[in-house]
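Hello,

I think I submitted the nicotinamide-adenine-dinucleotide job twice by accident. Can you confirm which output corresponds to this input? Input:
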Amino acid sequence: MKIAVLRETVPGEARVAATPETVKKFVALGATVAVEAGAGDGASIADAAFAEAGASVGDRAAVLADAGIVLGVQGPVPEGLPRGAMVAAGLNPFGERARVDAYAAAGVEALAMEFMPRITRAQSMDILSSQSNLSGYKAVLDAAAEYGRAFPMMMTAAGTVSAARVFVMGVGVAGLQAIATARRLGAQVSATDVRAATKEQILSLGAKPIFVEAVKGIEGEGTGGYATEMSDEYKAAQAELVSSHIAKQDIVITTALIPGRPAPRLISDAQVASMRPGSVIVDLAVEQGGNVEGAVAGEVVVRHGVKIVGHRNVPSRLAADASALFARNLFNFLSAFWDKEAGRPVLDEEIGDAIRLTKDGQVVNPRLLGAA
Ligand code: NAD
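Support: Only one job matched these inputs. Its output is below.
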């Protein structure tokens, strides 16, 4: 079985879907690996390092020729993919629905790694977790870099510098890492989420939970541990609580996502205006429509003296580590299903049906068919 690793084509994408470590492991499984020249450049992995690990290095056509599996960080251009091949990558199925149809037309079996079920045995295959973790960390560093003050309290001969107040909105994988990182930098940290289960997690990281208590009957948690869309009553109560809290914050990190829907709006322009000049907001949901009014994808904008940071593709800003983890997620996935006799992965129903978007020329994924 030949595994092709493509160079990413989306502008600003610096990650790569394999590393010399995973190439070696695939070779040990009995696969051959071909890597497109320059694929590792953005992650500081030279072609020679891939070659040393046992891969062949060539142009796109050579790498794709006879490949049975194609690996990518983001979805590869459908043209030229070998008919019948498995394509495993982050395929952004809701955002790039037309490309899913193109994969079907190309006759490939497209596997969306972001649809990996959140079950214990798939944790090591979960690209959303591995990449969100790095995003949460980087968001805090980006905030610190934009902030014209220090994070920790400092007592100096010239006087005392007070600790920054950091508020994290959305306490999933990215939010938890943001809390931990801001705490390590010495900030005073608070956090909120719609899922009540996060309260304990916030406390255990030494941060203060900020929660709507008055509205009854709202759990906030839907299938698979994800957030659901909240009632209007809840949204109003949350907005009021956040308004009073946010005005006292120096840094706000927003990470709130709802799968398959635009990101919820958490901060209005008036709330931005209530913060003191020089404050910083980092909107990690900016590419899904943004949690913050006025945030612009790919830009750092200033509104009412507050900087709103909207970097795109935050994991790519830590391309070496992000690639290492992404590549391991792909390896863990493929190796878990590797059938030695067949010399290729054979997926089971639970995971296969969840992540498979196309098969035999058709779009087959229920989440896409249901949304159509
Ligand atoms: P996510 O990226 O989908 O969303 C980020 C956070 O935003 C979530 O905590 C969500 O509840 C929150 N949010 C949504 N709307 C909000 C609103 N209006 N206001 C405030 N917060 C809001 O989440 P994620 O990081 O992917 O994690 C989702 C869940 O999956 C968590 O329960 C996590 O622990 C769980 N998880 C399980 C596994 C596993 O078992 N394999 C792996 C990773 C994550």
